[in-house]
Fold:
Amino acid sequence: MSAKETKKISIIEKSLKLFSKKGFYNTTIPDIAKAMKMSVGNMYNYFPSKEELAKCAIKYSTNVLAQDLREVNNMDISSKEKIYEFTRKYFKRVKKTPEIIEYFLRVYLSNREVFNQGCEGFLCVGEFVTEVMILLDEGAAKKEFRDQDFFAAFGMFMGSLGGFAFLSGEKVLEKDLLDYSDLIAENIYRALKYEE
Amino acid sequence: MRNKPKVVWIQALTCNGNTQSLLSSNASRFEQFLNQFELVYHPSLTHHTTLNDVLQSNASYDFLLIEGALTSNTQFLTLSDQSSTAIVEKLIKRSHYVIAVGSCASYGGVHAKFEHNDDVVGVQSVVGKKSACKSGHDTINLTGCPVHPEWILQTLYTLKAKGNIALDDEQRPIELYSHLAHHGCTRNEYFEWKVESKSFGLKEGCLFYEQGCRGPMTHSSCNKILWNDTSSKTRVGMPCIGCTETDFPRENMLETKKNIGIPAEVPLGISKRAYLSLTGIAKTFKIERLIGKLIDENR
Ligand code: SF4
Ligand code: SF4
Structure:
C-alpha cells in the first residue's frame, strides 16, 4: 500500500472515532486535522470534502465487517454455526473498535442526506450485503433456513446485531456483551430456521 | 461429396415439431436446400419413397437425420414392424453422417420422462458418440425444442462443403451453440440494471428473476440467428426455457429457483459472490428511462 493510502486509512480510522462520538455535523475537518496533527490544507490533499471522507469511512467500516463475515462464510461448518461464529466476531468488534459499529448506527443511518449522492442504496455497503446474501442463500439452499423475503431476513439478522450493539453503547446491559453472544445468535437462528 | 447429397430423415418418438420448424425456414433457403440436396425420404414430405424402400435398398445416404427419441421396446413404437432403435442401427452403417435433430433425438427429451419405458434414449446412446457411420464423424446433436431450421441447414451446408463440423462437449456445432440465448437479447440493458418485466409479452424489462428466463445459461444462437428472420422468444417477452441444454425439459420451467430472494443459479462464468455484489449495487439505481413504457402513446 502506498504511503498516501496508509495515511488515508489512518485519517479514516481517526474520523470514525470522532464522527461516531460527536456526530457528523458536529465534527469539522479542522477537528480531524487537529486529531491527526495535520494542517487543514494538507487534509484536503487526502479528502476533497467532509462528505467524501464520510463515504470512504462507511465503505471502510463495512468492509471490515464484510471481511469478518467472508471468513465465516468460507468455514466448513453449518449455517447455524456460522451465525454463532459471526455474532461472536461482531460483538468482539463492538468491544474492540466500537466506532466501526457506532459510525454505522449513528452517522450512516441517521444522516442519510450525506450519503444519497454516490452512496445510494447498497453502493457503499455492497461488500457486506453480498456476504449476508451468501450466508442466507447457502443456508436456504441447504434447507437449514426457510425461504422468505430477503429484506425480512436481512433486517432480522442485522437488526438484532445492530440493536444489541446500540444497547451496549448505551451501557444498559447487565452482563458483558460477549455473554449475550450465543443467546442473540440463537434468536437469529430461530427466526431464520427451516420448519417442516 | 456428390453434387446432390442424399438426405434421409426418419422420425421416432416425436411431436413433429422439428419438421414443422424445418418447414418454417426462410422460403428461399428451403428452396435452395431442395435444389442442392436430394431429400430421398421424409415421412411427411416425400411421396415417391417409403420407409420400406429405404430399408430394403442397399443404397448409401449422405445424411441420416433423426427426429425424436429412440426406443428398442416395440410395445411403444414400431416403424415398418421394427423398433426405431433397430432401424437406426441398420441405417447408420449406410450413412455418412448422423444428425440428431432436436432435443428428443439428442437426449431423449420429454419422452425420456415417461416412467413406463426406461429405454427411451437419444441417438447418441444407440450409435455412440464416435458414430459407426461411414465417415466416422461424431454424432451431431442439433438440440432445441424445436431446433432452429437455419441450424439444420447450416450444418448440412457446412458438412457438404467441408466434410466435418467442430462440436462442443455436448456434440453440438460450436458455431451455432457457443453463444448464449442471452447474447443479442434486446433486454440486456434491463438485465444489467435489474429491471424486471411485469408479465409475459411486454417489450420492457428482463425476464430473469420473475419469469424464469434461462438465457444467461443456455447455449443457443436464438438472438443471433433470429426465428423467421424476425424475432426470438425473449424479444417478444417469452422467457428462454433452456431447450438446447441436456437438462431440458426441467421442472418449473417458467420459474427461477430462488433462496431467500437470491437466484440459486447465476449466469454462466461468474461466481455467485461477484454476481450478487454487482446485482446488489445495480438494483439500487432507478433509471427513469428503463422504468416507463418504451413507447407510450398516451404521453
Ligand atoms: S430476458 Fe433472458 S435473455 Fe434477455 S436479458 Fe433477460 S435474462 Fe437475458
Ligand atoms: S430462446 Fe431458449 S427456449 Fe427458446 S428456442 Fe432458444 S434456446 Fe430454446
Summary: Chain B has two domains: 6-176, 179-298. Residues 6-176 of chain B form a domain with the Rossmann fold fold (CATH 3.40.50.700). Chain B has a mean pLDDT of 95. Residues B 144, 181, 218, 220, 222, 232-233, 240-244 surround iron/sulfur cluster (ligand 2) (CB under 6 Å).
